[in-house]
Amino acid sequence: MLVLLINIKQMIKDSEHFYSNLPVNKVSITKLFETENLFTSLPDDWHVIITDITNSTQAVNNGMHQSVNLAATGSIVVVLNIAYDLNISIPFFFGGDGATFLVPGFLVKHMMESLASYKTDIFKNFNLKLRTETISIFKIYEAGHQIKISKFKSSGSFSIPIVLGSGLAYAEYIIKAKDFKIDVKESSNEKLNLKGMLCRWDTIEPPKNKKEIVTLLVIAKSSSQQPYVFKRVLQEIDELYGLQKKRQPISVGRLKVKSSFKQLGMELRMRSGSMKLPALLLTWLNTQYFRFYFTTQKGKQYLKSLVTMSDTLVIDGKINTVISGSEQQRSTLQRLLDEMELNDEIIYGMHISTASIMSCYVRNLEDEHVHFVDGSDGGYSKAASMLKLKLRI
């Protein structure tokens, strides 16, 4: 009996650290899609948590794209801080107007309570309705869907989760069903921890010699064809735009720290729920420190790592990416995507903008920071709108 109890406890511990224990794959991403055994099924005692701003397209059209982006980033910070305090590593996926998380079952209650408090604050301060819900991996598998995950090394110190299968699309469909109730009055006594949330960067123009920012979403019509479809699309992007480093929408030379009290006040309201003058002045002074820090050797190194650790490629059962380039490159890419769509291989959504926006989660300025990038006028939300329109046809 004692041996059985020890074995059960060990299984629970192994499940909690499932993602931490996954090997990091340093092969090319196209090679990754060719190698099925580099993907592992998620434990069925884990859960999917999804957050998203309802009617985000309308909010973006009303000029609230930065608020929508910050609200999505804040939900990531809330969840990651809980996992960080428990030394648990979890996969997450930024989507412009929300986020998706894969979490061990024992963390779900704590995270959902914190998100309930965050939801109330977002509605009170920005009049945005944040939907937060969860579904177990067991139920997803029971419905006949799969979630297979791999950990991919995308830069020197930055790895990202890559997910194949229809499981996350199914979870999103169930959670975002039309009859799903949204109660913005829901709250909790849970104290929010938004430590590390920084949104100090102004709108970012494309790198030198680039003219536009492309936000792209691609879904494979058949989940069994995802590896082939994703490989083909990403190979075409590599050939047209260059590897990920070359097509990055973020460059050090284009970064500008926010300077107005109005801009800084938005971050302050997101983090603390208010915009009191002493706190606003402290935030402004902190920003001035950052200006100085970025002139130092360490600061310059941080800016370089910021570019490589920007979250511009997300694969959560679909391709989500933000890239910079020329109109000619984009037109050539569109011809391929249109051809694949006509052949019933994919459905895609795309939005073109002249700049990008970035929000950040910074645990420290050396090696624990990640930066979430979107098109400047709601790129992901508008690309998703195009995608949804095609799905309804």
In short:
Helix content is 44%, strand content 23%. The chain has 393 residues and is α+β, with helices and mostly antiparallel strands.
Helix-strand topology string: HHEHEEHHEEHEHEEHEEHHHHEEEHEEEH
Structural class: alpha+beta
End-to-end CA span: 58 Å
Low-confidence stretches: 1-12
Estimated radius of gyration: 20 Å
Number of helices: 14
Major sheet attributes: 8 strands, mixed
Quote the average pLDDT.
Answer: 86
Provide the β-strand percentage band: 15-25%
Sum up the overall morphology in one term. Answer: globular
**Total count of strands:** 16
Helix content: 40-55%
- Domain count, please report it: 1
How would you describe this protein?
With 393 residues, the protein is of the alpha+beta class. The protein has one domain. Helices cover 44% and strands 23% of the residues. The protein contains 14 helices and 16 strands. It has helices spanning 2-16, 18-21, 29-34, 56-61, 65-85, 108-126, 137-142, 167-175, 226-241, 261-272, 277-293, 297-308, 327-342, 379-392; strands at 24-25, 40-41, 46-53, 92-94, 98-104, 130-136, 148-155, 158-164, 197-198, 212-220, 310-311, 313-316, 319-325, 346-353, 356-362, 369-375. Strands 1, 2, 7, 8, 10, 12, 13 and 14 form an 8-stranded mixed beta sheet that branches. The longest helix is centred in the N-terminal third of the chain and has 21 residues, at 65-85. The chain starts with a helix and ends with a helix.
